[in-house]
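Our preliminary data section would be incomplete without showing what the modeling component actually yields. Below, a chain of 174 amino acids is followed by its predicted structure, encoded as tokens that our downstream tools consume directly.
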Amino acid sequence: LHNELGTLALNGVFTITGTLAAPSVSGDVAIDRGSLDASELLLRLQRPYATVAAETPTPGETIAAVPALPGVSAAWDNLRLRLRFHASNNLIIKGQNMRVSRESMADLGDINATFGGDLSIRKEPQQDIELAGALQTVHGSYAYQGRRFTLERDGTLRFVGGSSLDPLLGITAT
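Predicted structure:
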């Protein structure tokens, strides 16, 4: 990965089975080094796509459905995914002027932190993606409203699975 979300150098073993219409991907992945942009990730998780108001048909009128891309949505919908990721204290998460949406005036601050830990990404056919596991802080800083805080070691970001990708936070900053 090397784009606006960040950079990741990965090493792992994958097994791909199933069919093109219903693939199954499993494997173990080590993050050799990584840097993710928390500012961009927050925006993508909150507003991953643009929405438009639906047209309301007049009585007796029907609106044609927008055709799906052939095979693309079916492959994702039918995907079975079981990946385990391990970061050996080498995953850097940075973000400046983080916001929960592009329209938000409220700023969540700046972060520059290094994490390590294990995460599991799972998806069953016709289900949403699930993220489970924990990342622990190694070192870092957080700045908010002109004050800078040092993140203490062994704080946690815990993902509990289910359809929510929102982690539980247990981080102390001084």
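The mean pLDDT is 86. Residues 63 and 93 are 44 Å apart (CA to CA). Preliminary results of this kind motivate Aim 1 of the renewal.
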